[in-house]
Amino acid sequence: MQVKSRHHLRSDAISELQAGLNESFGSEVTGDSFELVELNDTAFDIVLIDGQQLIATLEEEPFLTVQGANVFPPTKSVVTVDAGAVSFVSNGADVMRPGIVEVDEQISAGDLVAIAEETHHKVLAIGRATEPSDEMIGESGKVVESIHYVGDELYEFSV
């Protein structure tokens, strides 16, 4: 990933970003400096908060990066997986019904979600729900498509 441009966000853009992340993830995102890093050859752009890549956007839809979700823990849009799913999810696998132990009741198909592990509640990945929350727990089938996970190029990217 190459940097296309980099600039500080205006206060109104920061407020809009904070409100959007609060609405979608229930996270109170704060910081002194918000900087947008636009990237070439990827669908993602990154927002640095005080120099750390804590937010990304996908087609202008903001979400917490894995690092961001562990700094500003989400209280909404969380799918929790069991220990057996951790290594798969951490390597970019989509989330399957049998690995899920808990789901936020307000998730709709198409929502961005944080995927956390059940023991320490650390976020391992960010994905897009393919099913509503009331259809996520079950015996088989994929219910969340992974879009960002520990160790991927977005996670490893540094400016």
Would you give an account of this structure?
The chain has 159 residues and is an alpha+beta fold. It folds into two domains: 2-71, Pre-PUA domain, domain 1 (Nuclear Transport Factor 2, Chain: A), CATH 3.10.450.120; 78-153, Archaeosine Trna-guanine Transglycosylase, Chain: A, domain 4 (Roll). 21% of the residues lie in helices and 39% in strands. The chain contains four helices and eleven strands. The protein has helices at residues 11-25, 66-71, 83-90, 153-156; strands at 2-8, 34-40, 44-49, 52-58, 61-64, 78-81, 95-96, 100-103, 112-117, 123-129, 142-149. The strands form two sheets. Strands 7-11-10-9-6-8 form a six-stranded mixed beta sheet. The protein has a five-stranded antiparallel beta sheet with strand order 1-2-3-4-5. The longest helix is centred in the N-terminal third of the chain and has 15 residues, at 11-25. The chain is globular and about 45 Å long. The model has no long low-confidence stretch (mean pLDDT 94).
Please specify the SSE layout and strand pairing:
Layout: E1 2-8, H1 11-25, E2 34-40, E3 44-49, E4 52-58, E5 61-64, H2 66-71, E6 78-81, H3 83-90, E7 95-96, E8 100-103, E9 112-117, E10 123-129, E11 142-149, H4 153-156
Parallel strand pairs: 6-9
Antiparallel strand pairs: 1-2, 2-3, 3-4, 4-5, 6-8, 7-11, 9-10, 10-11
Question: Could you list some keywords that capture this structure?
Answer:
159 residues, alpha+beta, Nuclear Transport Factor 2, Chain: A, Archaeosine Trna-guanine Transglycosylase, Chain: A, domain 4, 2 domains, six-stranded mixed sheet, five-stranded antiparallel sheet, 4 helices, 21% helix
